[in-house]
Design a protein that fits this description.
This protein is an all-alpha fold. It contains 17 helices and 2 strands. The chain has a two-stranded antiparallel ribbon with strand order 1-2. Helix 1 packs antiparallel against helix 6, helix 1 packs antiparallel against helix 9 and helix 2 runs antiparallel to helix 3. It is globular, with a radius of gyration of 20 Å.
Length: about 425
């Protein structure tokens, strides 16, 4: 039940953020705003929800997951409601950039590893894969619906749909969400008996806890390699594809609903690819999984402009399938590696910082793609450059060393933590 509640909560938060590409043309047409300014607002959202991730992880440890989910979903709902009364570009920056960015942060950054670490002893990789794939599920189901509503009526009823879904999830979280298995007399999935876990309760100032985690993580080379690869991951996915793919297709004469359907079709394969990636990450070397994910993603991004220039729908469909399988597949292996290196207790906060790098990359691509289009009147160079960056990401992950037995890993309070 907890997995299901978390799954659907992430769907709602994910569609609120991933729908930005559907609204760009509508906002530009109705308000006369510059496209780069609209893209900047979405970039602020991507950056803010990423950079607040480690603080969300610290707050989870301090006040519990149920309260955090209620606060976050309420913030997201407030932002969507205020969208109806905006009239200036700075309104969009505050509403979409700050409120929706903060409201979606918990669900799209650290809630997946938190739930998998605290509710699962076994199948953690699979649990993370399922939860990560939930963003694709929302995209699969809702993006074509939102695009169709916008094309038939306007963007306001489309926002109304997101408001309705957010309200429903707020009620479900309030009634059914629990903080831990112990709260309802259960053990984590796969644990046969209660054990004394060598885990300290992280009570204290969440800002201090978050920065303590960062100060220890920056001393470890693997943190920089994971953060660097995840920066490129964000740049080549939610920042570029999530924000500009629909507009890129429209520039080649592809209708809005068709472009949104292509993006949602990626969600079908994203759901399969990410869940499979979670299963694989429990069984194979996560570094090699990431190497192939980034390499193949880079090849597909370089292939996309060629497919669009040719105007060949079969080629575009090939890209959709290929890229969709790879989109969020990088998350389960990245979470697994961070858990192996930093331990269960600290991996939540430290993964939050790694994901912050992901969203800095996403924000860079969201705004940078808008600038490239403004000056060159095409997105082609943005996609080609992202493809080449993915090659660097594949090199970053392959040089990560697996922690050996008994390796000492940083602990923000005790200096080091001995792990077998």
């Amino acid at each position: 039940m907890i997995l299901a509640i978390t799954f659907f909560s992430i769907i709602v938060a994910g569609i609120a953020v991933s729908s930005s590409g559907v609204f760009i043309d509508s906002f530009e047409t109705e308000f006369g705003w510059d496209r780069s300014m609209i893209a900047l607002s979405f970039a602020i959202s991507l950056f803010l929800y990423g950079i607040s991730g480690p603080f969300m992880a610290a707050l989870l440890e301090v006040i519990g997951i149920k309260k955090m989910m209620l606060i976050s979903m309420s913030t997201l709902l407030t932002g969507c409601l205020l969208t109806f009364i905006m009239s200036e570009p700075w309104h969009l920056m505050i509403i979409w950039g700050i409120l929706i960015g903060l409201g979606s942060s918990l669900f799209l950054t650290v809630v997946s590893p938190y739930v998998s670490n605290h509710w699962f002893e076994k199948r953690r990789g699979l649990a993370v894969g399922i939860l990560t794939a939930s963003t694709a599920t929302g995209q699969l189901i809702l993006l074509p619906i939102l695009a169709s509503i916008i094309e038939r009526y306007s963007w306001r009823p489309a926002i109304g749909l997101i408001v309705t879904l957010s309200s429903i999830m707020l009620i479900i979280i309030f009634l059914l969400m629990k903080n831990s298995p112990k709260e309802i007399g259960l053990l984590p999935y796969g644990r046969e008996e209660e054990t004394q876990e060598n885990i300290e309760s992280s009570k204290g100032n969440p800002i201090v806890l978050a920065f303590n985690g960062l100060f220890q993580a920056v001393k470890v080379k693997e943190f920089w390699l994971l953060a660097g690869s995840f920066f490129i991951c964000g740049l080549s996915t939610s920042g570029l594809i999530g924000t500009h793919f629909i507009s890129y297709c429209i520039s080649f004469g592809i209708p809005l609903v068709t472009a949104a359907s292509l993006l949602s079709f990626m969600g079908v394969f994203n759901l399969v690819g990410t869940t499979l990636s979670g299963w694989l990450s429990d069984r194979f070397d996560n570094r090699w999984l990431l190497f192939w994910y980034y390499s193949l993603r880079g090849a597909s991004l370089v292939f996309l402009p060629f497919a669009l220039v040719e105007g060949s729908f079969p080629l575009i469909a090939i890209f959709t399938v290929f890229y969709g399988l790879d989109w969020i597949a990088t998350v389960p292996p990245t979470i697994n590696i961070s858990r192996q290196i930093f331990g269960i207790q600290q991996s939540g906060i430290i993964y939050g910082w790694i994901f912050a790098a992901h969203q800095v990359g996403a924000a860079t691509a969201a705004y940078g793609g808008g600038l490239i289009y403004k000056f060159l009147n095409t997105y082609t160079w943005a996609f080609v450059l992202a493809g080449f960056f993915c090659v660097f990401a594949s090199l970053f992950v392959i040089v990560i060393k697996k922690p050996a037995a008994g390796i000492e890993v940083p602990h923000p309070r005790n200096g080091v933590e001995q792990r077998a």
